[in-house]
Amino acid sequence: MNEWEGISASSGYALGSAYVLPSALYDTSRRQLEAHEILAEIGRFEANVEKAIRDIDLLKSKAVADNKVEQAAIFTTHISLLRDPEFVGDVTQRIQDEASNAEAMLNEVTEELITMFEAMDNEVLKERCSDLRDVSARIGSYLSGEEEKLQTEFPEPVIMIGVDLAPSLTAKLDVSQVTGFAVDVGGKTSHSAIIARSLGIPAVVGLKDISSSIQTGDFIIIDGYRGTVMVNPSSEVIDAYQKLKHDEDARLARYEMYRELPTVTADGISVQLAINIANPKDAMAVKKVGAEGVGLYRTEFLFMDRKEMPSEEEQYYAYKAAVTAIGEHGPVIIRTLDVGGDKEIPYLQQSKESNPFLGYRAIRLCLGSGNADMFKMQLRAILRASAHGNVKIMYPMIATLQELRAANHLLKEAKVELDAMGVSYDDTVEVGIMIEVPAAALIADQLSKEVDFFSIGTNDLVQYTMAADRMNEQVAYLTQPLHPAVLRLIDQVIRAAHAQNKWVGMCGEMAGHPVAIPILIGMGLDEFSMSPAVLLPARELISKLNRSEMVELVRDVLQMESADEIETYVKSNVLEFE
Ligand code: PEP
Ligand code: MG
Fold this sequence. Notes:
About 45% of the residues are buried. The longest helix has 28 residues, at about 40-65. The chain is an alpha/beta fold. It is built from 22 helices and 16 strands. An 8-stranded mixed β-sheet has the order 1-8-7-3-4-5-6-2. The chain has an 8-stranded parallel barrel with strand order 9-10-11-12-13-14-15-16, surrounded by 4 helices. Bound molecules: phosphoenolpyruvate and magnesium ion. Magnesium ion binds near residues 396, 436, 457 and 460.
């Protein structure tokens, strides 16, 4: 056996025969042209580029119709690459200058660009390499008429091995027979990784030259958790992995049962499980995992990695897209801009701060001098999206009542502005705040009178309570969501809100953590918002808990002396059935 170590791109196990994708799908050898043939050759190349654009456009429409948002986005990139006069122009120029056939010149230009991009220290450009490879292979195969060479249907399940996992290939493949992927290039966020995850197929990427070392028919095991690939393993290894796969299949089948079910404890108490998203595309996961809405839409990603602020129209379309994507499946809680801290926005001219996490960030920045127009523009865009579904507005990093009132004042102005323009919105839209600052937790009784809901942001609440920067490895040991101080604050926040008949959610990482969930159920948390990957396990866990027993658990843990003690106690008393 030999074992390859790569990067885990999509979790799960796969065992079976390899199918190695051919590395070149067309003959790239050079053929000299007579002068009178050159124009016709350029025409042949351009006609095939046009055919590729039409075909990719069809694939894109199919991906859109199948709700495969990631694939659709990749095909959009491919079309713009083929419409980019530089790439296509380089090839036609080369055909002209070198009086050579289109296949060879296309291959030369593609390889040169890939070599150039790979040498740059820029992840986006490196990612362009797989797009280039894909579109170039498509046109090359059209030019040489070898399109049909590629096997896309398999009578038996296979594990696909290749240089890269081209989106145009996966769109054509009968994926029901593909049980795993292993490819030479890519990282956790490369297209191949995204596609594998969206298809739910175990995958390992970044395996360097695995595609030239494996033969079709070799027996392969993919361990998508460890990021390893085993080739022709011993029967003991096969047995061990068959058992792991069997247990995993049973676990996944169990989770699947919870997809359509509401979230209810064993003694009949209902809570809501929602997901956190960073862009409208992510909202698709609500249906995929059976979530009860979006508990946190981090809008700042729309404002990052660009040269100018997104317009009100652009924001409106993004928020509306998230709202319409989930339809009836619960609310979308849209958090207003949370930048500063670790998130820099070049066009906002933020000054350098010695303590950015304690600085001019989130609501402080939005309420800051000269920023009211920017904030109101976002509020108008959110309000407009509220006309299309169930939207709630949430302000981040509130520390004082006055900040909440100032934000609400601007919200009122934004509504008046929309009224004046005759633009519709939901006037009853709920407004809540994140509880991320200990000061806010301690005045939750006052804040709860002026909001519709709280959502506890434990990622920040923990760092501020423990005075330990969440980005600093050296103090990472203090990132303790189960520290008695943090738990007492959370308990106090939930009690204060309930005293005013307001609901409380949690959208920090803690909400999806199996050790925290029993405690939060005992405290009476109403909504848990988490990454989609942990939602079904959380629903299963909650269905086995008894609220009344968890109330007692909370009484016990609030008296304990450390996070470790609390974790051990929950694990041995509650999670033993896991
Ligand atoms: C939090 O602080 O818990 C939170 C959800 O916000 P973010 O992680 O975006 O700061
Ligand atoms: Mg936060």
